[in-house]
Design brief:
- With 234 residues, the chain is mainly α.
- It folds into two domains: 71 residues, Winged helix-like DNA-binding domain superfamily/Winged helix DNA-binding domain (Arc Repressor Mutant, subunit A), CATH 1.10.10; 153 residues, GntR ligand-binding domain-like (Four Helix Bundle (Hemerythrin (Met), subunit A)), CATH 1.20.120.530.
- It has eleven helices and three strands; from the N terminus they run αβααββαααααααα.
- Helix 1 packs across helix 3, helix 4 runs parallel beside helix 9 and helix 5 runs antiparallel to helix 11.
- The longest helix is centred in the middle third of the chain and has 21 residues.
- It starts with 6 loop residues before the first helix and ends with a helix.
């Protein structure tokens, strides 16, 4: 079946079919889909139609094209990762345009990240607990605002997101780590109390270790509420 009679609709349809192919086959970043000629023949469309579909997928961070003898179309990220990058890029643009501020973002984070802590408590593993403990230990030997502390804080929240076991929620909330955390590190580090942050992290860890979703969510809400107060005071 050929789609060339409706180029715009055809390119969107092909983009959708390639997305489904990625999900169905489980192709990972770096793996090769083929050449333009291969894909155009497989889907029965012209090269211009295929190129527009590939452009749509590239804008969603799903594929990348390379030239040369070993070039072709490669997977750039999984569909969930691509979704997360698109959300992060959109939030970064909103921050740059000053259409949202840090207080708005912290409020959104409250409603997104707190349920992740509850899910992490339900799906915790020994690896989750070890990662959280290691992140806290790393933060103890550094100061807020330093690269080591920022890396430890990032690792703590990343471990919770990964432990939640819900890839869609992780994709939707990835911007809190990709975009918001760096801004917080720059803006509130001089004003945040290291002792309080570590106490809050330990409370979250304690609830997750004990498998207490409600307590984990409450502890995360308290942590984000503290950060929001600091941001509001800037």
């Amino acid at each position: 079946m050929r789609f060339d009679h409706a180029p715009a609709d055809a390119s969107e349809q092909i983009a959708l079919e390639i997305r489904r192919h990625l999900e169905r086959t489980g192709l990972q970043p770096g793996e090769r889909l083929g050449t333009e000629a291969d894909l155009a023949a497989e889907f029965g469309v012209s090269r211009p139609t295929l190129r527009e579909a590939l452009r749509l997928l590239a804008s969603s961070h799903l594929i990348r094209a390379t030239q040369g003898r070993n070039g072709g179309i490669f997977v750039a990220s999984t569909p969930n990762e691509g979704m997360g990058r698109s959300v992060s890029a959109s939030v970064a643009t909103m921050i740059a345009a000053e259409s949202v501020d840090l207080v708005d973002l912290m409020q959104a984070r409250m409603f997104m990240e707190s349920p992740l802590a509850a899910l992490a408590a339900e799906h915790r593993t020994p690896e989750t607990i070890a990662a959280l403990e290691q992140a806290i230990e790393a933060a103890e030997t550094s100061e807020p605002g330093t690269p080591d502390f920022n890396d430890a804080d990032f690792a703590f929240h990343r471990a919770i997101a990964q432990a939640a076991g819900n890839e869609l929620m992780v994709a939707f909330t990835g911007w809190t780590l990709d975009v918001l955390q760096p801004h917080l590190a720059d803006e509130i580090a001089p004003r945040a109390e290291k002792v309080l942050i570590l106490e809050q992290h330990r409370a979250i860890l304690r609830a997750i270790r004990r498998g207490q979703p409600a307590a984990a969510e409450k502890a995360m809400r308290a942590h984000i509420a503290y950060l929001r107060e600091v941001v509001a005071g800037l």
